[in-house]
Write a structure and sequence with these properties.
alpha/beta, 8 strands, 6-stranded parallel sheet, two-stranded antiparallel ribbon
Length: 184
């Protein structure tokens, strides 16, 4: 199948690395959300998720690349969003993301090279520096950007996740098939 036109604008090295992953891991605050925290009267933080990002995750999973979440904060909203998207592996309240990553690898029986990671801040570096495909959102920290194979055009919470899902689908030759049901 032919690669989608947008794939020609992507770095060949990033596409090659994304082509081999079987699991894409996402941070939450600043990646699946814009990083803003809205506190209610009871002190609970609310989160705003992007519907385009969610549909991208669903399509990516449908075509064989699983998704997981590793986040430092704990929130019932993250669990709800993960359930809505069919994300089975969710690690919350994790300040040592390396430990959660090792646990995840054991659960899914994959190697670090089989995984991709999309992060935004230095807390993500212990995982990002170990995976096969490293990505950062456009508004991420410079240290994360400098160690990434790909930096999104979109900011966290504003389509960056969808951009990565589309990239993975294209790299693995599944983008056109994922799009086909919507063009029939």
């Amino acid at each position: 199948m032919n690669a989608p036109a947008f794939a020609s604008t992507l770095p060949a090295a990033a596409l090659a690395k994304a082509a081999t992953i079987r699991l894409m891991i996402f941070d939450v605050d600043g990646v699946l959300t814009d990083g803003g925290l809205f506190y209610g009267e009871d002190g609970e933080a609310f989160k705003r998720f992007n519907a385009l990002d969610g549909h991208g995750i669903k399509m990516m999973q449908q075509y064989g690349t699983a998704a997981a979440i590793i986040t430092a904060r704990q929130s019932p909203y993250v669990l709800r969003r993960a359930r809505d998207l069919g994300i089975a592996h969710v690690f919350q309240g994790i300040h040592d993301k390396r430990q959660a990553f090792e646990q995840l690898l054991q659960q899914v029986q994959l190697t670090p090279q089989d995984c991709g990671y999309l992060g935004d801040d230095i807390i993500d570096l212990p995982v990002l520096t170990r995976v096969g495909f490293k990505a950062c959102v456009a508004n991420g920290h410079r240290e994360v950007k400098s160690r990434s194979d790909y930096v999104t055009q979109a900011s966290g919470g504003h389509g960056a996740v969808r951009e990565i899902c589309d990239l993975v689908l294209a790299a693995q030759g599944n983008y056109e098939a994922a799009l086909a049901p919507y063009l029939a």
